[in-house]
Amino acid sequence: MSTEALSPSDLPRVAVIGGGVMGGTMIAALRVAGWPGESITVVNRTAERSAALAAEYQITAEADPRAALAGAGLVILAVKPQQMGDLLDAVGDAVAPGALVFTVAAALPSSFYESRLPAGTAVVRAMPNTPALVGAGATSISAGAHATEQHLLLAETMLRSTGVVVRVDEELIDAVGATAGSSPAYFYAVVEAVVEAGVMQGLERETATLLAQQTFIGAARLLAESGETPGELRRRVSSPGGTTLAALAAMENAGLQGVISAGMNAAVHRSKELGQQLAG
């Protein structure tokens, strides 16, 4: 992955279409990455949300997406997949020649965008996850048919402050969605289960929640900083004949690996299914 930084003079004007959670996250990332506020315009369905983002990040709010797209060299599409077709049919022809279209919508292939945009428009798909909100995200990017190395570099420059960014072939992006996009929800479900189990063992809920939260934070940090594999760290905690090994054996017998695999398979299947439905 290239780590070359773009100079301020290389940073294009930006139109952000959609000011929800991910749209707001992308705006924050742009500002941290060095984009001046006056070069960013946001469009959202509700004027109140646009005004709030404009005030928070010192950017411009615009009600008309076509006006926002005029002169924008980077277009960030952050609306729901179900809304994307109508949006592109309405304003796709207003995307400036040479602009990069960057989308955070799930399921829709780059060809979906390319068929609704001016011929030759570069598209980069991204699969972010919600920890990007606190600079600890894991985002994958994949290039469409017309995206170049420079387009990917621009996307990486924008995403630098959100956490880890990896490049993948587009055919793998559904797998990334199951592995990183959806997995924060898997993690929260496990934390909830650990808390409930702790309460059943007699702990106060507040105490169980604090212990589980800090333990998972610490375990993740140790994994990230130790350079060891999850398996190695797991074995280090699991003394022969001890309590942890007994717990892990019980979880394995209950089908832990199968449960996780089933969930991820379902996520990938639904992503492909949704993409086919929306792409027609």
Automatic annotation (TrEMBL):
Keyword ATP-binding among record annotations: no
One cellular-component annotation, GO: cytoplasm
Subcellular location as annotated: Cytoplasm
Positions bound to NADP(+): I17, G18, G19, G20, V21, M22, A78, V79, K80, P81
Root EC class: oxidoreductase
Chief site of localization: cytoplasm
PROSITE patterns in the cross-refs: P5CR
One MF term in the entry's GO annotations: pyrroline-5-carboxylate reductase activity
Pathway noted in the entry: Amino-acid biosynthesis; L-proline biosynthesis; L-proline from L-glutamate 5-semialdehyde: step 1/1
Family, similarity comment: Belongs to the pyrroline-5-carboxylate reductase family.
NCBIfam families xref list: proC (TIGR00112)
Function: Catalyzes the reduction of 1-pyrroline-5-carboxylate (PCA) to L-proline.
Official protein name in the record: Pyrroline-5-carboxylate reductase
Native source species: Demequina lignilytica
Gene behind this protein: proC
